Amino acid sequence: MAPQLGFIAWIIIGGLAGWIASKIKGSDAQMGVLLNIVVGVIGGFLGGWLLSLFGVDVAGGGLWFSFFTCLIGAVILLSIVQFFTRSKK
């Protein structure tokens, strides 16, 4: 996520990305607004880090690129959490 975005933009983009990611992963019923924001913002860091490993300029991507970076990172984060919290049958 681009650091030049303001704090409020991080919360809004992170919240939307976290909410959509929770819908994609089917975990929306367990998550509230605050957890959606946290997942989206952490997903932004995770997605930005992963994209930078592939040489993608994440800082200059703009608003939509930041949103999709957060979304991809949030889906990956929720997938990891679901993998480790899956109940053994």
TrEMBL record:
It comes from the Bacteria. It is found in: Cell membrane. Its main location: membrane. Gene3D superfamilies: 1.10.1760.20. The chain crosses the membrane at residues 6-22, 34-56, 62-84. Keywords: Cell membrane, Membrane, Transmembrane, Transmembrane helix. It is a multi-pass membrane protein. Signal peptide: none annotated. Belongs to the UPF0410 family. This is Membrane protein. It comes from Corynebacterium atypicum. The lineage of its organism: Bacteria, Bacillati, Actinomycetota, Actinomycetes, Mycobacteriales.
